[in-house]
């Protein structure tokens, strides 16, 4: 009983440590430190390297293993296979040449990474640091998807060309090294690991599960049973994880391969984002922190310092990580600046979960010592500490050198202002979007790609208190043209150099022009455009780059039912022109709510319209 009591006490300490860690990061504003790295550091403090408070037992071992399995599942789930799709439009970089094809350049970079890793691994074997070239190649070549993705998101680089290249390199590295790790276990694992051909059973089961899931996710009963206490979609996902983990263990592969394959299958089935959020919440809120804290608990740093070979290995291994990622990144110099190249190379050096997996497996198979395992994990932790910091420093320096030519405030978020905000060059215009608060608060506002500042009202005193009039250009486009006129006149009185206001009536139009306000209206703009198309069609081509075709999309996805348009997560160059609801025709604006069975008339690039159609017309697993 005493041993069981100590085990439960250790579990409580680990859970408390996992709970306190993010609070400490927030309190001391350590935003550049990934939370998983902080959890390992806390584990070092309370484990063998520090106060040695933790006694391993059944509870901790079981939960830690489940955390590792769930981490591998979420790593597979994070892979966005749409990134592998071709047909992307060519864009010019800041150097004036066309950006490279992300998939081609990413594949080329990973091939170079793999070759360099193989060469340096051979040197580690020659100098007797490790006995297995294959294992060291996997450790050097892998990249941490869990560190790269949030870092790119925080930097706002996910949708940029260079961001897509970095993401694709990471995804390719994650997929390839995971498969190679399974092959490694099959070759070096001995009799218990089974034959390599048995892996085909695992992948065959994965393919079968994918087609079964694809068939049943569209059934109406699935949507019905996904609510209340049934939650059939969540049950299905955990069943997929455990079935594939079980098969993976049976055929002699590591359980993490089955978990990773389960994540890939679920990602291919395009799960509902709310369900993904629930899975993230469960994984990163409970199981995964326990695993990472226990990783730190198991590392005994004092014993590492007792081995001179280990002490020499760690800096050499870190240097190998840098070389293996920085040299291939030089391929980007043709299109991007040195800062972008070095920033990309630095974030690619981050590695964590797969290194832990490879090191753990290597130690279990007797290919490396416990000290070597700890050294490999410690180097990966250091890489995750250093890489995001260097990346953010280079990126921030780039931002600091950017000098905006104009500061523009938009009052009113609607179909007129949102597309303009999106398309203004961020290097030339600093934009701010303001809208009145709405009573209905939707948690999905966090998914919006626009940063909208809430104001209590459009009263000029309230607006003045927010500093909205301290700009170079003010655009006023609320739904009330009289209100637009009041705000515009006040802005001119306050000395705003350029004020642009929306006014539809000719009387108000003339009044504002006399006041020095620039005026636009939907009616006048349409008339001017038609005249320009007749008189000077080439000038219209110069001004319009988007496709002008209209498309109809039926709103069938309950996830967006009741969502305000200003909170809708717009994707790409798509503008909503009209909404038909029953017999009503609605001109959409920021406070228009989407309803089930709405017929949306949209315009924009065909590829983005198709993406929006897939999102709205086909209900995903809810």
TrEMBL record:
Protein name listed in UniProt: Sodium:proton antiporter
UniProt topology in membrane: Multi-pass membrane protein
UniProt subcellular location: Membrane
GO molecular function annotations of the record: antiporter activity; monoatomic cation transmembrane transporter activity
GO cellular component, one term: membrane
Classification via Pfam families: Na_H_Exchanger, TrkA_C, TrkA_N
Source species: Pontibacillus yanchengensis
Domain RCK C-terminal: 537-618
Residue ranges of the TM segments: 6-25, 32-51, 63-84, 105-127, 133-153, 165-188, 194-212, 253-270, 282-304, 310-332, 341-362, 374-391
């Amino acid at each position: 009983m005493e041993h069981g009591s100590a085990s439960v006490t250790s579990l409580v300490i680990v859970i408390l440590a996992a709970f306190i860690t993010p609070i400490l990061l927030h309190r001391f504003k350590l935003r550049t430190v990934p939370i998983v790295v902080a959890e390992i550091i806390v584990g070092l403090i309370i484990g063998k390297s520090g106060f040695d408070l933790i006694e391993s037992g059944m509870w901790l071992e079981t939960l830690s293993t489940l955390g590792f399995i769930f981490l591998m599942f979420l790593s597979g789930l994070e892979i966005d296979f749409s990134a592998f799709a071709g047909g992307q439009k060519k864009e010019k970089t800041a150097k004036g040449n066309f950006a490279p094809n992300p998939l081609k350049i990413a594949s080329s970079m990973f091939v170079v990474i793999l070759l360099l890793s193989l060469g340096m691994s051979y040197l580690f074997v020659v100098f007797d640091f490790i006995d297995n070239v294959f294992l060291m190649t996997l450790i050097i070549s892998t990249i941490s998807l869990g560190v790269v993705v949030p870092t790119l998101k925080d930097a706002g680089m996910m949708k940029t060309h260079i961001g897509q290249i970095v993401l694709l390199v990471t995804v390719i590295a994650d997929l390839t090294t995971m498969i190679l790790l399974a092959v490694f276990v099959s070759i070096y694992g001995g009799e218990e690991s089974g034959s390599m051909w048995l892996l085909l059973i695992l992948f065959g089961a994965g393919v079968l599960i994918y087609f079964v899931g694809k068939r049943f996710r569209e059934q109406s009963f699935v949507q019905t049973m996904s609510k209340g206490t049934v939650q059939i979609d969540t049950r299905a996902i955990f069943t997929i994880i455990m079935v594939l983990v079980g098969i993976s263990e049976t055929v002699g592969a590591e359980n993490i391969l089955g978990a990773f394959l389960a994540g890939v299958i679920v990602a291919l089935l395009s799960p509902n984002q709310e369900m993904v959020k629930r899975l993230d919440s469960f994984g990163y809120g409970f199981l995964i922190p326990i695993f990472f804290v226990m990783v730190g608990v198991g590392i005994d740093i004092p014993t590492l310092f007792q081995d001179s070979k280990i002490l020499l290995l760690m800096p050499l291994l870190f240097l190998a990580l840098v070389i293996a990622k920085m040299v291939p990144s030089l391929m980007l110099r043709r299109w991007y600046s040195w800062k972008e190249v070095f920033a990309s190379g630095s974030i690619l050096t981050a590695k964590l979960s797969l290194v832990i997996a490879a090191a753990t497996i290597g130690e279990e198979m007797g290919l490396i010592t416990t000290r070597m395992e700890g050294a490999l994990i410690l180097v990966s932790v250091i890489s995750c500490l250093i890489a995001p910091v260097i990346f953010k420093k280079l990126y921030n320096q780039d931002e600091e050198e950017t000098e905006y030519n104009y500061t523009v405030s938009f009052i009113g978020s609607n179909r007129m202002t949102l597309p303009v905000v999106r398309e203004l060059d961020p290097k030339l215009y600093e934009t701010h979007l303001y809208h009145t608060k709405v009573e209905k608060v939707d948690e999905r506002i966090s998914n919006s790609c626009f940063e909208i500042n809430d104001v209590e009202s459009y009263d000029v005193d309230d607006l003045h208190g927010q500093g909205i009039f301290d700009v170079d250009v003010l655009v006023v486009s609320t739904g009330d043209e009289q209100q637009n006129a009041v705000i515009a006149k006040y802005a001119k009185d306050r000395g705003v150099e350029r004020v642009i206001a929306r006014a539809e009536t000719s009387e108000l139009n003339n009044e504002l022009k006399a006041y020095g306000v620039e005026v636009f209206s939907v009616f006048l703009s349409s008339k001017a455009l038609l005249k320009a198309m007749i008189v000077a069609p080439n000038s219209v081509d110069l001004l319009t780059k988007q496709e002008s075709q209209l498309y109809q999309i039926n709103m069938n996805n309950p996830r967006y039912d009741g969502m305000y348009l200003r909170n809708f997560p717009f994707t790409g160059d798509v503008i909503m022109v009209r909404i038909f609801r029953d017999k009503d025709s609605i001109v959409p604006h920021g406070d228009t709510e989407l309803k089930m069975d709405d017929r949306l008339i949209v315009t924009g690039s065909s590829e983005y319209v198709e993406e929006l159609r897939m999102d709205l017309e086909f209900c995903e697993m809810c």
